[in-house]
Amino acid sequence: MPFCTQPFNRIEIFEDGNVYNCCPQFVSYYSIGNIYQTPFDEIWNGEKAIELRRKILNNDYSLCDDICNRKVNNDINENGYNVFVEKYPEEISISTDNICNIRCRMCRDKQMHTEYNKDNVDEEIKKIWLPILKDARIVRFGCTGEPFASYKEIKLIQSAAQTYPNLKFHFHTNGILGTEEKLIELKVFNRIEKISISLHCASRETYNKIILDGNYDKVMSNIKLYSNMRKNNLIKEFRLIFVVFSENYKEMPDFVKLAKENNAKVEFWALRLNENTQIGQKFDDYSVINPKHKEHNQLIEILKQPIFQDRDVKLYPELIQLIN
Fold first, then answer.
1. Phi and psi, residue 35, nearest 5°
2. How many CB atoms lie within 10 A of CB 29?
3. 217 CB-contact burial (10 Å; exposed 0-12 / middle 13-18 / buried 19+)
4. pLDDT tens, 133-181?
5. Model pTM?
6. Which of 295, 297, 293 is nearest to 322 (CA)?
């Protein structure tokens, strides 16, 4: 029977301090607490976390969204899991802020900037963030912003690398600032489990259309860097991510080929509604997965191509449903 292990070993923490056991949308924004309001001990085994675990153990996914794809079919012994989890999570995703150096049109129309009191940042990292990582195996940076553009996130990466020498890192980036020099400077070059680049296209022309303030040449240079790192087993996994919408979906097959040429896996995500962007305000015009969209049938024909059956290509549930 499919079983979800997420509530027992994983959390995601966002810039507002809210804690989730999975992608917020996958758990219908069911937050188990807020690190700026409650000590993490009381969150991790708090009433809301225990309630979610109890439901999962009873095969009750009523707190989860239907689009979730986290349940796994394997030989997991559900009896080995308990509503109370003594060890802190082993997988942690972090966004300390949503700062980014570019504007992906489906994500934001304005660059995000934040000024920090550096003394306050250091104190927050020491007292709040680092203790949460004490049992972590891997920590992911870049849930909502660009980790290499954020002073706060960079300071946390440095502190985590120094405090926990066995900790591995997963960076979700737009591919511009994560150079070899930066990774060496942060002392994480040989401690990377995964690198994911949100690229969303296979050509310079489309990149310049949907990624504002970007740098296509730098991204391609870093893709080559990560490709070589993957080839030489310096990273375990390299992924390229593509949010599907009307302005880029025709490049999906070429995107898979680009990934293959660079030792990368692929993830295709559906466009999410974000009413704070121009695309979000005209969502139906861009959401090509909508059956009412004028180009929807063209997307279906593309998805039927054998290239999307490759084991290194992952379609998120909304896209899988279109061809099942």
1. -70, -20
2. 11
3. exposed
4. 999 999 999 988 899 999 999 999 999 999 999 999 999 999 999 999 9
5. 0.92
6. 297
